[in-house]
Write a structure and sequence with these properties.
Chain lengths: ~300, ~250
């Protein structure tokens, strides 16, 4: 059950030329808030939610699980070739938010999404849009490595095959090798491409999942705590990989490790109880956050 | 998050890990104790000069190793905090600021030692004692420098940005006192060349006092960085005010 975004909002985001009204609707929100502070000291997002070259834009996104509201009026741009990290305590809505970006929430019973989310200015909740195509453009890597119980080769080849990106064995070979190379796994598995993907180590499995995600040449890669099940060395390899992938992809990562967010991202968004509290350059967020709630969280002051 | 914290936005809540608070407090109080010690070193060094007491000056020199020891200790604590707690935000700024303040305090300790050495040199040298005229500038500069240091340590203890701004701006006064002291010393030398030896010693002393003001200014700038997250070390004194600090 997806509630359609209001056409008016959509129109304002689709306008090609920047009209003055557009700046008002999707520009930086005023820092002087006219909303009342709630008992946490929150009124609205602090910091610049916009970027110069947005790949994805979300505006006033609300997500409800039944009666419960998981996300409240979240507006955020995700820029090209940048890594955006979502941080916040459990239940703050950060995972829910990135799951909206490729409509993973469609699969959850009773989940309702309102607001506008666009990918390259196209509304991704448009009913005529093919969700399978969307997910090919917006790939996802999960917390637990989840390779298919198939060979390493087939794990990577699966996406390109079902999306018809390959027509010959040679093309498939090429795409599999390139994807595994980009994921930094090729040298480790090139001699055993036919053995099962589930037989790899945890870190290798996660890189296999990343190879699988990039095999279909997505624009955006969403990562939901990709390193939480990995050891520090495997984590470092994934982080190095994220930094390399940034050249070609837009990456949104949810992480419980603030150090990881600090290491891999250029922008950081801090969520608390469903609100996007603060967005900013990662440097600024971790050295001099503007909002009290962000400060309390990153310095370890939440009970 | 308790409602209490919204009632008083200045109040800093405790860390979830209590030991972290304790370690930060320990570093903070070590730095403040070190500040108290160097303040005392300056006072004693200047008293020894005024009271013509080389023995008291020797005690100042002997005590400098305590300052150095505290410097090493504070540095070690700061490094450990960085490595083991991975501080962020205000905590990170606090540790960096305290770590830098320690360096300035150690240098102030060195200046106290230098003043003490000059005192010994002046009163134990063969020949005549210096005229009081020659020493007059050291007394006025000393009270200015000591006030700056006291205020700097005060604003560090209370994280008082208002006072920190005052200290940072106040350095210009000490600098101009230093310039006029130098001019007067040059005049004394020209008046009577027998003054040269003492005048050189006194030049070192006023130079040390001027440096103490610079270090006090640095410390107050670290306080501003700590509280406001703004590096104001190279901002001109004219544009340095509350409005500047509130700009995003």
């Amino acid at each position: 059950m997806i509630t359609q975004a209001s056409p008016q909002t959509e129109e304002s985001m689709d306008t090609g030329k920047p009209a003055p009204s557009r700046t008002a609707s999707i520009g930086t929100r005023s820092r002087v808030s006219n909303k009342a502070l709630d008992d946490r000291g929150f009124s609205e997002t602090v910091g610049d939610i916009t970027v110069d070259q947005p790949r994805m834009q979300t505006r006033d996104v609300n997500v409800y699980y039944g009666d419960k509201q998981a996300i409240k009026d979240v507006s955020l741009d995700i820029g090209r070739n940048e890594v955006v990290a979502m941080i916040g305590p459990s239940g703050c809505g950060k995972s829910t938010f990135i799951r909206c970006l490729n409509r993973m929430n469609d699969t959850i019973e009773g989940c309702r999404v309102t607001g506008t989310i666009t990918l390259d200015k196209q509304d991704i909740y448009d009913p005529t849009l093919d969700v399978v195509q969307l997910r090919a453009r917006v790939g996802m890597v999960f917390q637990k490595p989840n390779p298919f119980p198939k060979s390493i080769y087939d794990n990577v080849a699966y996406g390109p095959r079902i999306h018809g990106l390959v027509s010959s064995r040679m093309e498939t070979d090429e795409i599999v090798q390139r994807s595994l190379e980009r994921a930094g796994l090729w040298s480790e598995v090139k001699d055993r491409l036919t053995s099962s993907g589930t037989g790899l180590s945890g870190g290798q499995q996660q890189r296999l999942c990343i190879a699988r995600a990039i095999a279909v040449s997505p624009d955006v890669i969403l990562m939901d705590e990709p390193c939480s099940a990995l050891d520090p060395i495997a984590t470092a390899r994934i982080e190095e990989l994220i930094d390399e992938l940034r050249e070609n992809y837009t990456i949104a990562i949810v992480t419980h490790s603030m150090q990881q967010a600090a290491r891999v991202s250029q922008r950081t968004a801090y969520f608390h109880l469903g609100d996007l509290v603060e967005v900013g350059e990662t440097n600024q967020i971790f050295t001099n956050p503007r909002h009290r709630l962000t400060e309390d969280y990153i310095t370890g002051r939440f009970g | 998050m308790t409602p209490k914290s919204t009632q008083n936005p200045q109040q800093i809540e405790e860390h979830t890990v209590k030991r972290f608070d304790q370690e930060l407090d320990e570093l903070n109080s070590l730095v403040l104790r070190m500040g108290g010690l160097v303040q005392d070193q300056i006072t004693r060094a200047m008293d020894a000069l005024r009271e013509e007491d080389p023995e008291a000056a020797r005690q100042v020199i002997a005590r400098d190793h305590v300052v150095n020891f505290m410097d090493v200790e504070a540095n070690e604590r700061a490094v450990n905090l960085l490595a083991l707690r991975q501080p962020m935000g205000r905590d990170l700024r606090m540790i960096m600021s305290l770590g830098k303040a320690v360096t300035d305090l150690e240098r102030i300790g060195d200046e106290a030692e230098r003043i003490a050495r000059m005192t010994i040199h002046i009163y134990e040298a063969a020949g005549s004692q210096p005229s009081h005229k020659l020493l007059r500038d050291t007394h006025s500069m000393s009270s200015l420098a000591k006030k700056m240091l006291r205020d700097a340590l005060d604003c560090l203890a209370r994280l008082d940005v208002e006072l920190a701004l005052e200290v940072a701006k106040g350095d210009a006064e000490l600098d101009s006192e230093f310039q006029s002291a130098l001019r007067r010393l040059a005049t004394y030398i020209m008046e009577d060349s027998r003054n040269v030896g003492h005048a050189i010693d006194v030049t070192f002393i006023v130079r040390s006092l001027e440096r103490i003001g610079d270090h006090a200014k640095n410390i107050s700038e670290y306080v501003i960085f700590l509280v406001k997250g703004k590096d104001v070390r190279h901002v001109s004194p004219e544009s340095l005010d509350q409005d500047f600090l509130e700009q995003a």
